[in-house]
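Interim report, section 4.2 (structural modelling).
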Amino acid sequence: MQRTDLIGRIGILALAVSLILPSVARAQNAADIINYKGPDRQKRLEEGAKKEGQVVLYSAMIVNQAQRPIAAAFMKKYPFIKMTFWRGDSEDIAAKLAAEVRANNVVADVVEGTGVGELIVQAKEAQPFYSPDLEGVAEKYRDPAGLWAPTRLSYYSIAYNTKLVPPNDVPKTYEDLLDTKWKGKLAWRIGSSSGTDLFLSNLRLAWGEEKARAYFEKLAKQKIINFGSGSARTLVDRVVAGEYPIALNIFAHHPLISAAKGAPVNSQLMNPVATTAATMIIPKSLRHPHAAMLLIDFILSKEGQQILAQANYFPVRSDVPPNPKVAKVVPEKNGYKENFVGPDKLNSYTVSSEKIYQDLFR
Amino acid sequence: MATELDVTDAAEMARQSAVRAKPRKLQFSPLVLLLCVILAILIIPPTFFLVDVSFHTTRPDGSMGDFTLGYYKALFTGRFFLPALINTAIYAVGSAVVALALGVTQAVLVERTNTPGRQYVVLGSIIALGIPNILHVVAWLLILGRSGPVNAALQHAFGSAVGINVYSMWGMIVIEGVNFVPLTFLLMSSVLRATDASFEEASMMSGARPLTTFRSITLRMGLPGILALLLLVFIRAFESFEVPALVGLAGNINVLTTNVYQSSRGSVTPSYGDAGAYSICLLIIIVALLYLYGRLSRNAHKFQTITGKGYRPRVINLGGMKWGASVALLVMFMLVTGLPLLILVFTSLQPFYDGVTPDAFGRFSFDNYREVLGPGSFRDAIANTLILGAATATLVVPFTALCAWLAARRRPGAWLLDQLASLPLVFPAIVMSVAFLYVFVNLPVPLYGTLLSVIIASTVRYMPYGMRYAYAGVLQIHNELEDASMSAGARRSSTFLRIVMPLLATPMISSWLLIFLLAVQTVSLPLMLVGPGTEIVAVSLFDLWQNGQVTELASMGIAWVCLMTVVSTTFYYVTRRYQLTI
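Predicted structure of the assembly:
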């Protein structure tokens, strides 16, 4: 036992020495590379990326519909880079990256997800970068500190079963949800920062604490069903099946996709519409800074955003239209007010919103 | 059994030598020490991580912060603790009763009677084990949910006011209990097969009725197996999450796991403190339970029915009752395998699921299968997944057989083997994944991100299952066979390889298949440990679970079950060819 310990320690020490020395130089280098703004930027990145030969993306995007097509298109554009990806939940990604950073064994070059970027920023594991393609993205979705870039937007709404909720009864405002006829018939998703917490944070940010609290106290009397495990998509399927007439705070486009196949479900936006962005960050001590920058440029480019739009994600670029099948829920194009809950607010409000949930709704 | 003759001869010699020599006692067993060290290397790092996170806050960068007892305090003092504890106890006892009642009945009918159709129960159980746990729960919610066929039928018959609410305690108990039936059946039938039926015959000949015989002979003889099962099912119920979260929470029923889950949402940084504290408490409980179970093996000779005499399980003729027994088996088959599969097949053929209605039958299409099985999806991942399952099972089974044998024969220090190998049972999947993540990412050897690292972690995760199978098996083998072998000059290693292993073949084969089926469907462990570019089917399942529609999830599930059925039946017939049965 002791002997194994000793061997292990020597090994780790040797590894540490061999890694720390070059990595100091590497960090300096990487910062220069990913912030370079000169006219020969593209040429330099491509030359560097040729030597690196690969790039790794950690992302919460669906593999088949988003990550795989992005990798295919990216490798077609840059045949000298082999792109691999790993898919996980925001929490999984944050845990994996934290472990890699602490072990000084960072595999990821670009990390993408909702909420995860902010966790990494808070852990001081992200570094600022520059991409000219951010020009195509509206100011409000950008980070002034340059630590993250948005990749895709999400809009949240209620889903309702069209057989169980007659057209005239569909709640159109948050006040409408307080009608006693909905008592015990509303469900929401707990245990995820994009579920209950986002619902509460959205109204707190839009209305102020006092008004929001008064509303929550009334809403708590509705005895909302706490949908415990499973995704927002699963909850919408329950609405389709008629288990719950109405679900709160689900992804607004999910009911539309089901409705297109004939399912008895629809979504209804409410003012203000909670909106979030998934973001990309570059971790410290990454191995392939040139290729990472090319990948970020690509995902932010028109081509990259069009691939995401095809996968029913909402593009962040104003010049890429959303998929027509789901365009109906883009708030500003349909007369609704969008409340963009940025990554910083999403995370800083989650803890206090969770407390409100625990006090009133559990 | 091929070794039967040698065994009988050897036993004869043993009897002669037993008079002369006292049973050998080892003062110190280097083998036990070696195995302990291997286990410790595998199990201590995640255990240490568990203890560490339960006593420290977690900083945003994932490092440990200040020392705290807060997680333990929160566990026991919250206003939800007591109701959750009571609910958990009801849930654990209830699901254990359901699982044992159905599983043991199946096993007795299959192994001890001439019920027609009994030979298909094994196959049904294996197919059921191939259904990933999450899908099993989803299937039952589709069947028993508000819009499901059961409620539709009830409302059709008795009016719209009548209906059942599956989001309740009984719903949780039934779903979890039924989910465990294949496991209880397989373990019990391997126990029963190894039990000498002559005791039962003696009982019947003395005039006892079948039920009395069953109660006072069969059940008692199978006690090690039944207790091992109780232990597994009970502990599993204490740490199960899918059923409490999907079924319980929607009906506002909190058990301890969902309580911990809800409390741990207080921070955005991934923190495993609450889950860690809970697992540490479970760890203490399981150590206590194993201690009690270990005491049982002190009286192990009571259950040793595989002796040198040679044994042949014999079949009880049920006479006219045999058709009734067939119906009972069929009903149980429908509960465990048939109904969940039927509803999944039905759902997989629908563009969306809104109940089993006449309209729905007009909507059948194969679109979901085209979507899920199209190019670039799980087809690429199948090879890796099968390697993962097979390697895990192949590592766990012989290793646990050796550990269980040493522990059951009470070699010095061997009790520790059982304790160590059983610890992973209580590790919450996510905590274990993160713990192994830290281990592998820090290793000087480049294991991080490889399939091998997943295999190692998965071996640790399923060790307890192999251990319980093997232990129950060993307890039934009488020492005299081994003593005979040793007196005849065989070394301990050849005794284990040539006497114990062949006698353990039946439980070991069931154990292999079970671990294979469980290992290929785990999601969170491979998800955290595989690196970019290594594809595992579990990740596709995870994708669908997170973002897919239930219809797509169902079609993936059915494709998966088909694949697992092919693998399992091949395995089943190959082992039969070599005259080994599951």
